[in-house]
UniProtKB/TrEMBL annotation:
<feature type="domain" description="Carboxymuconolactone decarboxylase-like">
    <location>
        <begin position="12"/>
        <end position="93"/>
    </location>
</feature>
<dbReference type="GO" id="GO:0051920">
    <property type="term" value="F:peroxiredoxin activity"/>
</dbReference>
<protein>
    <submittedName>
        <fullName>Carboxymuconolactone decarboxylase family protein</fullName>
    </submittedName>
</protein>
<dbReference type="InterPro" id="IPR004675">
    <property type="entry name" value="AhpD_core"/>
</dbReference>
<dbReference type="InterPro" id="IPR029032">
    <property type="entry name" value="AhpD-like"/>
</dbReference>
<dbReference type="InterPro" id="IPR003779">
    <property type="entry name" value="CMD-like"/>
</dbReference>
<dbReference type="Pfam" id="PF02627">
    <property type="entry name" value="CMD"/>
</dbReference>
Amino acid sequence: MTPRLNIFQAAPEATKAMLAVEAAIQKSGLEHSLLALVRLRASQINGCAFCIHMHVNEAVKNGESHMRIHLLDGWRDSPAFTDRERAALNWTESLTRITKTHASDADYAQLKSQFDESEIAHLTLVIGAINLWNRAQIGLRAVHPMETQSAAAA
């Protein structure tokens, strides 16, 4: 796959603004591990390999286990996730698949049972932001870096 263009070079002011939004979200008080799971789940749904790569690394950096990362796609059927994480992941899916879910009152009620208004606002912003990043990276054919093969995989 050949990248079409580098969005950071082609739109520096706009991407700078997006990074400022991301920085504000990181300072929101929400757990960084939760933010990583939300970003990773939306990226899985959207099929953004570049973003999946980035957010797997982010999740590991924030202490996430490899097993929970592998189970993320099946979070609804795994006891590995807390009620708070489930509410955030459900909201992630609801907003990422908005044409099907319409961000239902039931989804919002589940979210509201676990998060305060500021947290809900920041979760909603991070979900919107990652969906924008996913679409930009897929549309512009961003290619994730390749690591060398590990000894365990050899």
